[in-house]
Design a protein that fits this description.
two-stranded antiparallel sheet, mainly alpha, 6 helices, 2 strands, Arc Repressor Mutant, subunit A, 7% strand, 142 residues
């Protein structure tokens, strides 16, 4: 009798995982384009960069010249985390490793500090935007 209860429980559980609906071909293409743009960012160093690095970089591309605290507020991240990401996107990564060189912090009179793209950052941003548009621009320098 105990074996019947175990078997009955298993039978009731069959089919509890719902089958995922297939996405449309146009939606699949959108996801492929997004992945190719994110892969471009991830390939900037010998190991993949974490997604928050890409999010912060794209936020700087979207609203360049703002203080780090504004990006923190917009992305709902702590100022400490944003500072770490910006530093890694800039000249220095964790443990004083070489950064990606995509952004820099400028001191100014309107805002105390402004996060701006470097020339390399502008080239990478152009590549990412080109990927998202379905165009493949070439880098000026490697």
């Amino acid at each position: 009798m105990a074996s019947d209860d175990k078997g009955a429980g298993i039978d009731r559980r069959e089919g509890w995982i719902q089958e995922a609906e297939a996405i449309s071909p146009s939606d699949r293409r959108v996801v492929e384009i997004l992945l190719s743009a994110l892969t471009l960012l991830s390939d900037l160093r010998d190991r993949p960069i974490p997604l928050p690095f890409a999010v912060v970089f794209l936020s700087v591309v979207l609203n360049e010249g703002r203080p780090a605290g504004n990006y923190a507020r917009d992305l709902n991240m702590s100022r400490y985390a944003i500072y770490k990401y910006i530093r890694s996107l800039g000249d220095r990564g964790r443990h004083n490793a070489l950064g990606l060189g995509l952004v820099t912090i400028k001191r100014g009179y309107r805002v105390k500090t402004a996060v701006v793209l470097t020339d390399k950052g502008r080239e990478v941003a152009a590549q990412v935007i080109g990927k998202l548009r379905g165009i493949t621009p070439k880098l000026k320098s490697a």
